């Protein structure tokens, strides 16, 4: 009898421990898989954003798992359709034929996007359009035409089978802020899941600055200390956390308009319109433009005796130093009435932290052979090297880049360098923190995703505590296993007391 006692005792202990372990394991398993189970039955949701830039429109289709709207990083880009042609919507209504042609190109993209969305989802798919600097410039020039264009656009978009939400001209500041939101949303900087499946602010509250280079404007945005204030500081609250975002948009300093400002300087420097040496065009490249190509914009002052049809003949000289000094001339680095300025008298605090540089920044650095992070001296050396290659060599080396763009990269690499180094004041150390990218997690970086997330309240300013256990089934299971654990523990306790005394 006495010899049997310890065996029964051991069995009991083993049994109880096994039960305890099994309950804990079941509890953990339920907690871990509940997330996957809970959303298994829900299908995807879709949203469309039309980015109407100065040089063209781009249509983005975003997709996310249904019922999971308010998490960070779950919305991804499903498709992206570039509307064919060279004009943004600001060129609509200039002449009938051109208007009809660009409308047809627009419809090709809409058709592709529509086909990519399951038919039963059309009536829940939201649709947004945002027009940027091209339309801002037109609005300043011809308010009537710009509002007519927006009216036409709204009418067309409401006729589509989607939930049309908003079509407006967004301000430069909104553009900068939405770009910043996109970058930080995609990088998961705004919210993260902790071990208990609960959403919390990530450790260190780090955000990444955002720099966008479009055709007609450029934007910088980064989070700064909360005690700074002024017209360029936007206090925002995302998922319950406050951020103070410095953001400024420079109209006319997009790649295309800046290029025209430089051509204007080049033209004024020369006495003969039939032979204008351009240090920013590669050696061996020649081109003729109508004067209107350079001056039909608010960004350049028209010369006296301006004739839009005058022919201007440019001859590339590929002189990197001269090109750089031409580029410098479109900036005013002197005027500043506050402690620190970027340029043209615009106040800007010192840049801090990591930065994502996308759109034109990415295309330019990629053309000179750099992607991702780089070194300031390396960037400068590669810009010089690019400028010094003649046209024959360039065309051979970059067969995939069209002539229209290839001729611009000598100018734009110097432009990007000057803007970042002398304008925003990235020094040798800070330059290493700039990441030249066009995508994060296969999703294009731009203002459009942040715009959709903000306007559809998918990044709410306040969140209720999001507890993982909201589903009754899982709550029940968790309750059951928790109860089992408690009972087991009590049993063990009683057992121990019994054996000890
Ligand atoms: C559309 O968006 C703009 C901001 O981009 C906002 O000011 C405007 O109120 C919105 N309109 C509607 C109808 O939601
Ligand atoms: C903001 O706060 C920092 C310290 O957090 C301080 O050094 C700085 O002087 C303050 N700036 C202003 C404008 O109050
Ligand atoms: C230049 O102007 C002429 C006459 O206005 C026009 O026919 C031609 O298409 C223009 N060329 C360019 C390149 O804009
Ligand atoms: C272009 O540069 C290459 C290499 O530097 C040289 O061999 C070639 O003759 C140049 N072509 C012209 C047209 O200058
Ligand atoms: C989640 O997003 C929806 C819009 O998709 C919004 O109506 C809702 O308030 C958000 N939820 C929370 C907890 O903020």
- Could you give a short account of the major beta sheet? 7 strands, mixed
Q: Which kinds of small molecule does this entry bind, naming each only once?
A: 2-acetamido-2-deoxy-beta-D-glucopyranose
Which class do the helix and strand fractions yield?
alpha/beta
- Terminus-to-terminus distance: 20 Å
- Outline, from the CA principal axes? elongated
**Which CATH first-tier class of the domain at 44-251 and 440-455 would you pick?**
Alpha Beta
Number of strands: 19
Tell me the CATH architecture of the domain at 44-251 and 440-455.
2-Layer Sandwich
Mean pLDDT: 89
Rg from alpha-carbon coordinates: 30 Å
Helix content: 40-55%
> DSSP strand (E) fraction?
15-25%
* Main sheet strand line-up: 10-11-9-8-15-17-16
Summarize the structure.
Belongs to the GDA1/CD39 NTPase family. The chain has helices at about 5-40, 95-115, 135-140, 145-160, 170-185, 255-270, 290-295, 320-330, 360-365, 375-385, 390-395, 405, 410-425, 430, 445-455, 470-500; strands spanning about 45-50, 55-65, 75-80, 125-130, 165-170, 190-195, 200, 210-215, 215-225, 235-240, 240-250, 275-280, 285-290, 310-315, 355-360, 370-375, 435, 440, 445.
Describe this structure in words.
By secondary structure, the protein is an alpha/beta fold. Among the domains are: 8-31 and 469-500; 44-251 and 440-455, 2-Layer Sandwich (Nucleotidyltransferase, domain 5), CATH 3.30.420.40. 42% of the residues lie in helices and 20% in strands. The protein is built from 16 helices and 19 strands. It has helices at 5-38, 96-116, 133-141, 143-158, 172-186, 255-269, 291-295, 320-328, 360-367, 376-387, 391-397, 403-406, 409-423, 428-431, 447-455, 472-500; strands at residues 44-52, 57-65, 76-82, 126-131, 163-169, 192-193, 199-200, 209-213, 217-224, 233-238, 241-251, 276-278, 286-290, 311-316, 355-359, 372-373, 434-436, 439-440, 443-444. Strands 10-11-9-8-15-17-16 form a seven-stranded mixed sheet. A hairpin with a 4-residue loop joins strand 1 (44-52) and strand 2 (57-65). Helix 10 (376-387) packs antiparallel against helix 13 (409-423). The radius of gyration is 30 Å and the shape is elongated. The two termini are 20 Å apart. The model has no long low-confidence stretch (mean pLDDT 89). Residues 166, 168, 170, 174, 455 line the site of one 2-acetamido-2-deoxy-beta-D-glucopyranose (NAG). This is Ectonucleoside triphosphate diphosphohydrolase 3. Residues 1-26 form the signal peptide. The active site is at 175 (proton acceptor). InterPro entries: GDA1_CD39_NTPase (IPR000407). It comes from Champsocephalus gunnari.
